[in-house]
Amino acid sequence: MATNLVSSIMQILTPDLIAKIARTLGIEPDVAQKVAGAAVPAILASFAGIAAKPAGAQRLSDTLERQRPDMISQITSAIGGPNQKDIADTGYGLLSTLLGGSGSNGLASVVSSFSGVNQNAGKSAIGLLASMVLGTLGQLKPSGGFDAGSIANLFSSQRDQIAAAMPSGLVNKLSATGLLDNLDGGLRRGTEGATAAAGRMTGAIRDTAMGASQIAAGATRRPMTSSWPYLAIAVLVLAGLGWYLLGNGEKQVAEQTRGLLNKAPDDVAAQMATPNAAELSADLSSSVDTVRTTLQGITDPTSARAALPKLQQATAQLNRINDLAAQLPPDSRKKLASVVEASMPALNSLCDRALSNPQIAGLAKPAIDALRAKLQLLAQA
């Protein structure tokens, strides 16, 4: 596609908006700009890794389908105001849903370290920028809606741009921690290959130069002997090898850079293929508690608007749990279903109370209906 996602998002982050983010996070504007320059391609790289697997592409598609068309204007209006924290929390929650808690926390840690900000500021910035990335992606929704195939094609077309926008220092930090295995698969391996190739080239040329220098120095110290022609030939061979490595090494680096995001995160795929029943049960209980608390807080149109992102986030989390639960044994699925089934009467009552107010229903009914449908699906063993 013609759109460059990284450029589109960075263009939204005007100097004025960066200054507002910096002020609210207590950091300098140039530091906030560095955070954005690192976080945006890193988030997109992680999404590219998710999109490379059918199940991941569908999960990302479902998340983007729920993005409002006016999401970007809502985010930019909220930055610098009292609602900024809600936007950041929602964005970070969606990122955690898509990447897993360890993936989002690891990403925030590396970006914070790279940018020189504390973990709290980095996490808030990541949340804001994740919301902005998702909002921008949501604006690209095809006329027929998103599906796994369109998501996969979208990110396939963006791989070169994402790789080119990734700061080299950030790539090194991600590679050193192994986080790229869980984010975009091929990026870490490609970077390591390029670094290794560069190291081999440098070493070969250095060794060649040192060898030639030593031989030349030896020649000045002692008379030429019958072994000199062989040493000269060795120097020429090594020099030729060094230049060969240099030329072909550069080609290898370029090829590896172009293919940075070609592979999906195998570690994440393996985790998805073997879900942990206890962890899913804990995640489900936490999601149900979040839903209950959010619904209890809906009392008027203002609180309903504030609750919408949290309800959407909870629905996305329940959708992920449902996908993973389908891979569990029947007994484990029944235990998960019992958690939801026991909570449904109270949750239905809260939903009905909210929808009994016409003003609230006009705002929240689609989100509440989607949430109910997902809960009812999980309640079925």
Looking at this protein, list some descriptive labels:
381 residues; mainly alpha; 18 helices; globular
Overall description:
The protein has 381 residues and is mainly alpha-helical. It folds into three domains: 5-180, no CATH class; 188-258; 274-379, no CATH class. The protein has 18 helices and no strands. Helix 16 runs parallel beside helix 18 (358-379). The longest helix is centred in the middle third of the chain and has 36 residues, at 186-221.
What would you say about this model in short?
This protein is mainly α.
Task: Please count the helical segments.
Answer: 18
What's the number of extended β-strand segments? Answer: 0
Determine Rg (CA atoms, Å).
26 Å
User: What general form does the structure show?
Assistant: globular
- Helicity range: over 70%
In terms of quaternary structure, the protein is: single chain
Unreliable residue runs: 182-239, 241-273
Proportion of strand residues:
under 5%
For the largest beta-sheet, the strand count, sense and barrel status come to: none
What is the element string, with H for helices and E for strands? HHHHHHHHHHHHHHHHHH
Structural class, from helix and strand content?
Answer: mainly alpha
Overall pLDDT confidence: 75
Distance between the termini: 42 Å
- The total tally of domains equals 3
